[in-house]
Amino acid sequence: MTSAQLLQNGRTLRASVLDISGITLLADFSGALFWEEQSLLVVSDLHLEKGSSFAARGVLLPPYDTAATLGRLAAVIARHDPRMVIALGDSFHDRTAHERLCGADRDAIAALQVRRDWIWISGNHDPALPSNLGGVVATEVCIGPIAFRHEPTGAIGEIAGHLHPKARVPTRGRTVERRCFACDGERAVMPSFGAYTGGLSIRDKAFARIFGTPGFMAHVLGDNRVHTFAAARCY
Known about the structure:
Purple Acid Phosphatase, chain A, domain 2; alpha/beta; 4 helices; nine-stranded mixed sheet; globular; 235 residues
């Protein structure tokens, strides 16, 4: 693992370079992965319309999560200008969430797809995505030695989401909890990208089942860079 630098509005933004089954990818501080050789951007677990889903059950959240998530997605797409985007499952929080999108958010999604190949991977929250969202729908995608799917199996060459990894790390006499990439050089689990999504500690046994050993790394999202820690050092 090495570091990389991006420039945005005169600021230097640092990211981690992940090697997965011999393929080099850039772990962006936003929580996206960029495969430069393929001009491919990958995001996971957008959970669009989570706020409206909770509101329908009487749990009131500010109804701005979709716009906030799409805004962050637009920023990272502008930063890398990918030819292809893969949304790695649970892009929508429930089976009917796409029906609750407002016109402005639908237009925002359409604008992001212009001149790009766009693939929606189906997830457990959105297993039956409609065909009117633009792009194509798939259960998984394989490019070279890399398999992109929603739920991790632990297979070599796999990049998955679903678990929303997060890590609690020591810093300046206190601990900070942030989303992270979990990676051991053979496979990776991506952080959730959605504004209202929570997380699962990388010390949870679900990650032990995937990686088999605590010897994997946590690439933790900071405000403008990615910080790398041994998972065994995280809480």
